[in-house]
Amino acid sequence: MTAGRDPGLQPERTRLAWRRTTLAYTVATVLALRTALHGGASPVGILVCALCFGLWLGFLRIAHHRVRALSASARPAPLTPRHAAVAALCAVATAACAAAIVV
Predict the structure, then answer these.
(1) What is the pLDDT of residues 25-83, one digit of tens each?
(2) How many other C-beta atoms lie within 10 A of the C-beta of residue 69?
(3) Structure-derived torsion over alpha carbons of residues 95, 98, 102, 103, reported in degrees to the nearest 10
(4) 101: left (phi over 0), alpha (psi -120 to 50) or beta
(5) CA atoms within 13 A on the CB side of 53
(6) Helix H or strand E segment including 45
(7) pLDDT tens across 69-93, in order?
């Protein structure tokens, strides 16, 4: 006899994954800001910092929305394509900012 699937486990794992991703994104953003401003604030460094911070806020908003949706019901609605695209865009744009900081 096989045990039935517990639908509560998958949303919980997904919620925890969103939280881990948000934490990692926050650390990466703080390190990018620190690197951009290391040795004095230049206009380009300030612009990159503002862009990284804005991208982080966008990702944080989507992650918070998703975590709330996962916690709200036993069977949460799937992530919308629009939210998934914005989250991916924020991550890719932050990686581009990091590459610009390093170079």
Answers:
(1) 888 888 888 887 777 777 877 888 888 889 999 999 999 988 888 888 777 788 889 99
(2) 19
(3) 60
(4) alpha
(5) 9
(6) helix 43-72
(7) 888 877 778 888 999 999 899 889 8
